[in-house]
Specification:
Blueprint (H helix, E strand, L loop, with lengths): L19 H35 L1 E3 L5 H12 L7 E5 L6 E3 L5 E5 L8 H13 L2 H14 L4 H25 L8
Parallel strand pairs: 2-4
Antiparallel strand pairs: 1-2, 3-4
Helix pairs in contact: 1-4, 2-3, 3-5, 4-5
Length: about 180
C-alpha cells in the first residue's frame, strides 16, 4: 500500500452562485420595484377613477342608452347590475369597476358610432371578465416589473382583447358606424 493520505477539500461552489449578501440585495431591489410598481398603478387608477367620478352624469332611465343596455344584457345573458353614465373625464367609451361595473360614455362629444354597438362591445368585455384578467395582468406585471418583454406582451394582450370584443360584436351586427 502506498503512504498517500486522502485529502479532503471543501467542494467548490459553481461560479454562477451568488453570495448570500448579493442575493439579499437583489431580493430587496426586486421587492422595492414590485411595491413601487404596484403603488404607482394604484395611484394612477385612483386618480383616474376620481376624475371620472367627479364628472359622472347618470343617464336618465327613459334614455335610449338605458333601454339598449337592458336589451343587450338580456340577449347576452348578463345578470350583473350594470350602470351606464356619461363622463367628461373620458374621450372614448369604457367599462369600469369590477364589483359594480359601469359603462361610461364620453359626454363631451356625441358618439359618432352606433350606440347599440358601443354598449354591446363593452358588455362583451364584461361577459368575458376582461376587467378581472386585466387585474391579473397587473399583478403579474408587478411581480415581473423588471422584465421589458412583459410590457410588450401586456400591450399585445390589451390589443387582442379589444379585437376579440370587436370581432364578436361585428359577427352579430353591421359595424360600419362604429369606426372599425
Amino acid at each position: 500500500m502506498s503512504d498517500q493520505k486522502a485529502t479532503y477539500s471543501e467542494p467548490s461552489s459553481p461560479p454562477w452562485l451568488l453570495s448570500t449578501q448579493t442575493g439579499r440585495f437583489l431580493l430587496i431591489v426586486w421587492v422595492l420595484g414590485a411595491v413601487g410598481f404596484s403603488t404607482w398603478q394604484i395611484y394612477c387608477y385612483i386618480k383616474f377613477a376620481k376624475n371620472v367620478r367627479s364628472t359622472w352624469l347618470p343617464v336618465p332611465k327613459e334614455n335610449e342608452a338605458v333601454h339598449l343596455l337592458n336589451e343587450l344584457k338580456q340577449n347576452l345573458s348578463i345578470p350583473d347590475k350594470v350602470q351606464i353614465a356619461y363622463s367628461n373625464g373620458i374621450s372614448s367609451p369604457i367599462l369600469m369597476g369590477i364589483r359594480s361595473p359601469a359603462i361610461l360614455l364620453p359626454a363631451a362629444h356625441c358618439l359618432q358610432a352606433n350606440l347599440k354597438l358601443v354598449i354591446h362591445h363593452e358588455l362583451v368585455h364584461l361577459k368575458q371578465k376582461d376587467l378581472w384578467v386585466k387585474l391579473l395582468v397587473l399583478v403579474v406585471s408587478a411581480v415581473h416589473w423588471f422584465n421589458q418583454w412583459k410590457t410588450i406582451n401586456e400591450e399585445a394582450w390589451h390589443d387582442d382583447e379589444c379585437k376579440k370584443g370587436k370581432e364578436e360584436v361585428s359577427a352579430n351586427c353591421h359595424t360600419d358606424h362604429y369606426g372599425w
